[in-house]
Design brief:
Chain lengths: 593, 84
Amino acid sequence: MDQFVINLIFVGASFALYIGIAIWARAGSTSDFYAASRGVNPVVNGAATAADWMSAASFISMAGLIAAVGYGNSTFLMGWTGGYVILALLLAPYLRKFGRFTVPDFIGDRFYSQTARLVAVISLLVMSITYVIGQMTGAAVAFSRFLEVDNTTGLFIASAVVFCYAVLGGMKGITYTQLAQYVVLIIAYTIPAVFISLQLTGNPLPQLGLFSTHTASGQPLLQTLNEVLLDLGFNDYTGNHGSTFNMVLFTLSLMIGTAGLPHVIIRFFTVPKVADARTSAGWALVFIALLYTVAPAVGAMARLNIITTLWPQGIEGEPLAFDEKPDWMLNWERTGLLRFEDLNGDGLIQYYNAANPPARAVEEGWEGNEMVLFNNDILVLANPEIANLPGWVIGLIAAGGLAAALSTAAGLLLAISSAVSHDLIKSIINPAISEKSELLAARISMGFAIALATYLGLNPPGFAAQVVALAFGLAAASLFPAIMLGIFSKKMNSAGAIAGMIVGLGSTILYIFTYLGWFFIPGTNMLPNTPDNWLGAGLGIGISPLSFGAVGAALNFITAFVVMKLTAPVPVEIEQLVESIRVPKGAGAAVDH
Amino acid sequence: MSDLSTDAYWKANVRIITICMVIWALVSFGFGIVLRPLLAGIPIGGTDLGFWFAQQGSMLTFIALVFYYRSYMNKLDAKFGVEE
């Protein structure tokens, strides 16, 4: 059967499933729409959280990022999972006990201030809208590669499907489609990884295969990979070639940024009890780790596979000829994400590090690295083709990539629409609104959010990748400290929390724009983005703009405590509120506030 | 529930959170990054233990921590009679 038809069947069947779920799980009340009536089983919520969290970036990009750098990019693995420990221990149970629908709801009520609510709404909208752009463009890439439709058509199909289940079902529809999407994406990710691990090491578990003996060379896989990389003039795979300080800071920023992302936090509002929120966070981490422990194996094995494809007789032998390129290279060259150029005109592909060429390169007159472009995002999507797996696995990868992008997009869209209909309209503009009108407002704002996301997906700002870093930085520096203070400091008052959020938010935006340009417009940066210009460089601890979230969070905490000391103490009823969210009893009652 | 036992419950909770977060930091920032040179002598599959912690071990420990905290808190909730 034609590969296009296979892809169409897999993607079509998964979409039919999502729409079927949407019709089954219609929302009848605002509680349905915002929190699935708090009736979601904790294990189901764990899987839904995993799909909600694992975006196109986790599914498509992460293994490629790790493959490109090796050990140095372990930051993504530790950072994006470590955040769940923070969520499970420091945030989720208490926010569930508080029993509201949105993150700005908590911040507004706990700090008894509409200003605090508004600052939280603004942070939420900025980070969620920037995040959703990446999902829509990710979905468009998957559509154009696998279904051979142009980006625009692909985006409209994706938006129409999300519209069906998000507008009809709200949180309830999203929860059960996310469960289905998790199953699709984890199967799609694991199957090629198991096959590749078997081919290279004979071990079916990629997590163990990564540390097993490479069958072809008879020595450990990672040792072989290190050797061929060094022979080609690259850094070795397992060594640390960056700044240890920035590695720590970046990991910490990713962790607290993860814990502060509103679309993840609201998933914990859907379970019946406080104890369920703790259980659910554990299962979410299990389901996430199923993919995240496989990703580094996929990265290392695919990198080795690509090198052995390009150097079929080993590094000392003759490289691959241009007219012998396998089909997957030809397929991906058509997308523009992979490019070869015969720089020295000998008809062979010399792949090596031209900045640190091996001795042979000089002797034989190589003119530069002839794999001139390799986009990291190819790695996971092309994995089944690289490993010569059957056509149905490729169809599965197509459906999996779309599931990852759409599940995260839906979670973000819900966070955006509930911030508008619940926090702006119901809490600030018109508190007298009836439940029926609020539900209608929620559906209309969802429709607008989808239209905006589609528009931004069609016209992505050129800086989409950097904006994701901004989203994490903002979550780390603004919402995370405010929520944590709201729970762990009984005395924290509104002035302290608001000042803290503004300083955290402001300093992070300022630091990122200083090095990456105002609104990411090239040429408007005030300082060059190089390590010797970063703050603290003189002390040997230059802070990368991507790692600044953790520093912004620290400034937030400090500011909050200083301002708290100088301003009016917190009212007694707020202290009582904090005491009540610290004990689980009565979360069921908090449902009907 | 009296204020006294609320305080005791909260103190016990903060104590177990602190212990868990110390382990959380030790396996990731510690073994995975800063203390990796100290673990360089322990080989594992062509590399060292620090690399394993950075790409596998830290995540497995995180899972264990969250489930341990969950079961500890379920017992603590029951002990103080604040469970649902």
